[in-house]
Amino acid sequence: MLHLDRTEMKHIHLILFCIIILYSCKGFNQNENLDVTEKNMEASTLNYSLEVIKYEPNEELDYCRKNVFKIKQNNQYLDSIETKIEYGCCQVENKITLFDNSFEIKDLNNDSHKEISFVYMSMCRGDVSSDNLKAVLYDTHEKKIHTIDGYTLNEAFRQSESDTTGTIKKISSNIPKSFLSYLKKHWYSYSFSEKTPEHNSKNEIQVIKLKEKIKIGKAKTPNLERNIKKAVLSSPNIEITLLDGKVLNYNEPVFYTDEYDINVIDNHSIELMNRDSRSDTKIKSFWYFDAKKETLILYKIEGSFLLENSKKTCVLNNINYDIKNVNPDSVIETLKENGDCIEKQF
User: Fold this and answer.
1) What does the pLDDT look like over 141-166, one tens digit per residue?
2) Element containing residue 261 per DSSP (H, E)
């Protein structure tokens, strides 16, 4: 039988202790790696997609266009964002456009949770003015939507060849920096109407077209006899003659009265031009006829104003002012302060 002295026994115990520690550490690392692998496998099985519901124009519910963008995970709805264009815009050029190639799914902050983003444009206009542009980012970890809103730039409003981006007007609060820089870049890349990205998105988008049902009563067929036949401006009154022969009168919204003109657009809307030759100020206002309320609704206004060393041109879209209650001075101030303005130096 082998006999070991006390010193040799101590050495053997020390070696055995080290072996136990080594295997314990190895086992712990294996478990840790297993947890990470399971998390990655779980994340890789998540399938994100975007469902776009497009509604038909609905006069009873007062929208010309309505889109709902629904974010889905494994065919389960996570969140949605809705946009509407009022019914009066059906009489002019109108559109809601999702840029399909803007739909991206990325992990921007490397936290193993995806961020979903897309960009869409909406418009209601009768000329070449700017359109509304919104970039959306959905954080699947925090379950929160972040947005950037602004106006596009088109060729008519470019001041130089280097002018190739629109104007951001609003950024939702508390966007993490890693998301904000990406979303800004995403928004700007679609903000110049004449040049948008050409890359293809491989992410899934499903488009559904629906007609929203009226909950109370039935939808009525529009009475075409309630359209505008003729419009005459005899300050201080606007006289509207309908196709059915009825004549309606409204007080003129006195923006500037030195010169004026009035035109009917597509039997639904009128364009009113007021000009003050002394100050070289010109105001164009666009009104549609609301047959149910028998009133004119201001949906857009644009103006050019002569300043000391420059000329300022402003456009205000997507408004909804009844001619019976409109305050012209207040509208002009809103146009100058909150409209989409361009100033050119002399």
Assistant:
1) 999 999 999 999 988 778 888 888 99
2) strand 259-265
